[in-house]
Amino acid sequence: MAGALGRMGTIAREALQRSGEYCCGLARTSDPQHDVVDSLDAVFTHRPDVLLDLTTQPSSFEISFSAAGRGCAVVVGASGWSAEQRAALGTLAGERGIGALIVPNFSLGATLMMRFAQEAARFFPGAEIIELHHAAKKDKPSGTARETAARIERMAGTQPPIHSVRLPGLLAHQEVLFGRPGELLTIRHDSLTRESFVGGMLAAVHAVVGRRGLSVGLDCILDDADFSGVPA
C-alpha cells in the first residue's frame, strides 16, 4: 500500500496486517520495522496482487498508473483526480486486463448518503451540499461532495452548489439539503474516526481483483461486497 506512514495509511496498514493481507508499504522514507520501502520497484519485489493508494495528488496518479502498467490491480483512495486522469487509468486497466477502483470515500455510510441523495434528486427541485472536514484537508471541495453533486446533476439536470468548511475538531462530515415548497429533506453523514473507512477499504481491496477496467465509487460493489466489519 502507498502512503503507509500517513494517518489513514497507518490505520489501513494495521488493519491489513491483522487480516494477514499486508504485503509491504510504500512511503517517501523507508521503515523496515513496518515493511515500508521507498520505491515502487522495491514494492514489486514482493509481487503484490493489489496496490492500495492512500497518497495525495500528484503522486497518486503517478503511483497508481505505474502499478497498473505493471499489471497490478489498484484501489485509489485519493481525491483530486481529473476526468482525464481517470480516463487514462481506465484505458490502461482495460489494456492490461486488470481492475482499477477509484473510491472518493471508503465509508459505508457516506456511500449510502450519496445513493440516497441521488434518489432524492428525482423529487426535489432544489439542493445544496455542505461538506465539513478537518483543517489539514487540502482539496476543497472534497471528492465526496463533488461525486454527490455529479450524481444529483445526473438526476436533476443541474449541479447543486457546494459549501466547504475546514476547521479543527472536524474529521469528515457532509449534509445534503433538498427543498421543495413547504418541506426540507436533510441527508447527513458523519465519520467520527478514521476507523469508519476501514471496512469499505478492505471490501474494495477484495473486490477489485475480480473486476476489469475502471470503476468509480464504493457504490459499484455495494450489493456484492462484505461489509461485516473490521478484523479484530
Question: What would a concise description of this structure say?
Answer:
The protein has helices at residues 7-18, 40-43, 59-69, 83-96, 108-120, 143-156, 198-208, and strands at residues 25-26, 36-37, 50-53, 73-76, 99-102, 126-133, 162-166, 172-180, 183-191, 213-216. With 232 residues, it is α/β, with parallel strands linked by helices.
Please give a handful of descriptors for the protein shown.
alpha/beta, globular, 22% strand, 4-stranded parallel sheet, 232 residues, Rossmann fold
General description of the model:
By secondary structure, the protein is an alpha/beta fold. It folds into 2 domains: 7-102 and 195-221, NAD(P)-binding Rossmann-like Domain (Rossmann fold, 3-Layer(aba) Sandwich); 108-192, Dihydrodipicolinate Reductase, domain 2 (2-Layer Sandwich), CATH 3.30.360. The chain is 34% helix and 22% strand. The protein has helices at 7-18, 40-43, 59-69, 83-96, 108-120, 143-156, 198-208, and strands spanning 25-26, 36-37, 50-53, 73-76, 99-102, 126-133, 162-166, 172-180, 183-191, 213-216. The strands form 3 sheets. Strands 3-4-5-10 form a 4-stranded parallel sheet, with helices on both faces. Strands 7-6-8-9 form a 4-stranded mixed sheet, covered by helices on one side. The protein has a two-stranded parallel sheet with strand order 1-2. Helix 3 (59-69) runs parallel beside helix 4 (83-96) and helix 5 (108-120) packs parallel to helix 6. The mean pLDDT is 92.
